[in-house]
Amino acid sequence: MAAPKPYANPYLAGTGLGLVLLAAFVVAGRGLGASGAFIRASEHLRGSGGPWFDWIVVEIIGVVAGGCLSARLAGRWRIAIERGADRTASGRLTAAVSGGVLMGLGAVLARGCTSGLGLTGGAMLSVGSWLFIAAAFTAGYATMPFVRRAWR
Hints:
152 residues, mainly alpha, globular, single chain, 70% helix
């Protein structure tokens, strides 16, 4: 297997994400977000019609497909459990699932997800969104020393 390609330039990737957000506003008349897709899909399953025609459901399918395509093109496609040397695979999976559940509950309580709040709300210059972005980065930097120890 060939060596994987280096990660994308973050400035170029950020610019691309901004252009995708702009295109979402122009084409669909709404911004980006993730947590609403699960609610929309479950609503459609209980009612008439299917979830495939809802913008946010199609968006999430595109995110998954795009991520898979990107991993393939970069030579990073593989099935693996990334973990620190002193962590077990089951411990890593437990931590990942627990973190995902907590993020999902937080998105329900906040009535939106980090992508919707950070990207769409930030682009719309929402004060609450900018405060959230600052708090998220502050929390990330504050917890980094503890998380880093788990990956050694």
